[in-house]
Hints:
The chain is of the alpha+beta class. It is built from three helices and eleven strands; from the N terminus they run E-H-E-E-E-E-H-E-H-E-E-E-E-E. The chain has a five-stranded antiparallel beta sheet, with no helix packed on it. It has a four-stranded antiparallel beta sheet with strand order 2-5-1-6, covered by helices on one side. Strands 3-4 form a two-stranded antiparallel ribbon. The radius of gyration is 23 Å and the shape is elongated.
Amino acid sequence: xxxxxxxxxxxxxxxxxxxxxxxxxxxxxxxxxxxxxxxxxxxxxxxxxxxxxxxxxxxxxxxxxxxxxxxxxxxxxxxxxxxxxxxxxxxxxxxxxxxxxxxxxxxxxxxxxxxxxxxxxxxxxxxxxxxxxxxxxxxxxxxxxxxxxxxxxxxxxxxxxxxxxxxxxxxxxxxxxxxxxxx
Length: 183
């Protein structure tokens, strides 16, 4: 009999419940025989800066919403256990109606993990990239509500020099990227 090896499979979960599925599976791996067949449960996340009450907060955001990655030896019983875990819809399958769950290629998993690692290494990355000459509105701080034009961008420090008109006179402000939004 040939020895089966661990392969990566994708479970479709209810969106927003990925962490709960991981928690349930980790507990089952630790406390039952499922640990012999399932070696790893993974939810790729990225770190994102969110502004709450004028303060920057680091938050983990799921890269693939609604999906949980499982490294396992897929036998009939393991497939049944994984599929019937609370908040799991089913395995990600091919286009045929009753096709078997498809394993991911190792290169796909490494690319995915590499992308997640590179995002983790640079948590300073934000969704917004601003350019000189762009019109913006100040959203937080003492100048909240003022509109202006970007005069200078410092991408390393995530700072912007914005020219706003105060009492009809142009005034330069140095602001964080998170303190402005596009108009």
